[in-house]
Design brief:
Elements lengths: L1 H13 L8 H15 L7 H8 L5 H10 L4 H11 L7 E2 L2 E12 L9 E4 L11 E14 L7 E9 L22 H15 L4 E4 L7 H8 L8 E4 L52
Parallel strand pairs: 2-6, 6-7
Antiparallel strand pairs: 1-2, 2-4, 3-4, 4-5
Length: about 280
């Protein structure tokens, strides 16, 4: 009886994703996801099918994973909406998200879109100092976990390809793949998830994304795009500039400067001119 109720609850969780797949594809999706949940080892195809006691479906599931077609952004939107009922979803009136880049190791040179990266954790002299990997951008939900670090649930991701790697990566007959930097990918994913659920949104990012190309489009969005507040650390190499002059100096030629004189970085902030002002902020 408990097994029947558990299966009915699991089906209810997966049913909203049916519109993102074809009917045969949805069956494969349900089998794959159920196998992943029931497998405590590596999350690959074979252990997932073994957990379901259906190893004979390996070829069909591999074809679905490699050639299957589904609406990826729709899957991400439905997942974000499903997580609205998760405990700890609201923090002080915000939907809190987190974004970062990540790498997935790939050993074969024939895998498209891979790049080489330095492996800083390679302490053993027998291991390579550089590895081949896919680089991607991930945005997920942060769930409040009292007295503990927050739970992170990945929701959406995009592979980050170099511009020279783009030709031939699109699906045959599909639209071409446009080049976007990691910053643009993060903005795209954050806007997509913020548009999926109503309410104020807060995106937590590290200093690697603390650039105007990320923060400005999110906090000052275009017409129709939701606003996403941003929480990040202050970059130690950031700079403030004085207000640029509005009048020409005697004998000065050319256009007026856009930026004023550059101030010292935040670390030696005591060198900044003018008095300090103190304030309070709630975080």
């Amino acid at each position: 009886m408990q097994a029947q109720r558990l299966w009915s609850l699991w089906q209810a969780l997966l049913l909203p994703f049916a519109a993102c797949f074809t009917q045969p594809g949805f069956r494969r999706f349900v089998a794959w996801l159920t196998g992943l949940v029931g497998n405590v080892e590596e999350h690959t195809l074979t252990p997932s099918l073994v957990a379901l006691e259906r190893p004979q479906d390996w070829k069909a599931l591999e074809a679905f994973a490699e050639y299957g077609a589904w609406d990826g952004p729709a899957v991400e939107v439905v997942l974000a909406q499903q997580l609205e009922q998760a405990p700890g979803r609201w923090w002080h009136g915000y939907h809190v998200w987190a974004g970062d880049d990540t790498k997935v190791h790939r050993s074969s040179k024939d895998v498209g879109g891979t790049c080489t990266f330095p492996e800083y954790t390679a302490r053993c002299p027998n291991r390579a100092t550089t590895v081949r990997a896919h680089n991607g951008v991930v945005v997920g939900v942060l769930l409040h976990n009292p007295e503990q670090p927050a739970w992170f649930v990945p929701v959406a991701g995009r592979l980050d390809f170099r511009q020279t790697q783009l030709p031939g990566l699109g699906r045959p007959g599909g639209p071409p793949v446009a080049f976007r930097t990691k910053c643009k990918l993060l903005v795209e994913l954050a806007r997509q998830q913020a548009g999926a659920v109503a309410g104020p949104h807060l995106l937590v990012i590290d200093g690697g994304f603390a650039w105007a190309s990320v923060v400005r489009p999110l906090v000052r969005p275009d017409e129709g795009s939701p606003r996403v507040d941003v929480l990040t650390r202050w970059r130690h190499d950031a700079r403030l500039e004085l207000v640029p002059p509005t009048q020409r100096q005697p004998g000065q030629r050319g256009r007026l400067p856009v930026w004023g004189r550059r101030l010292p970085p935040p670390r030696p902030g005591g060198r900044w001119p003018g008095p300090w002002r103190e304030g309070q902020a709630f975080l």
